[in-house]
Amino acid sequence: MKMFLISDNVDTCTGMRLAGVDGIVVHEREELSRTLEKVMTDSTIGIVLLTEKFGREFPEIIDEIRLNRKMPLIVEIPDRHGTGRRKDFITSYVNEAIGLKL
Predict the structure, then answer these.
(1) What residues make up the domain containing 84?
(2) Would you identify the family this protein belongs to, as annotated (predicted)?
(3) CB atoms within 10 A of CB 6
(4) Which of 12, 39, 60, 84 could form a disulfide with 7 if both were Cys (CB 3.0 to 4.6 A apart)?
(5) Packed helices 29-40 and 59-68: angle between N→C axes, nearest 10 degrees
């Protein structure tokens, strides 16, 4: 299985390419939708990395895929400007997902 990056900036895409992850830079809603549709048809891609900006700006597109598809796994990553998440994001995410307080 491969990883694939969909980024909103060239710097993140370049950094991930140096790590061996192929990707594409998109800026518009339609570009994101088309790219995700194309990625969903590629059975060799197991993880899709998205910059957090897409999760903030187009949550309905991302949530629809997460709710209705098992593969690939969609993971939002921070870009070079850092993350907009709280420090305890992972803990609160696990608490919400499984209902246990860690």
Answers:
(1) 2-98
(2) Belongs to the V-ATPase F subunit family.
(3) 21
(4) 12
(5) 20
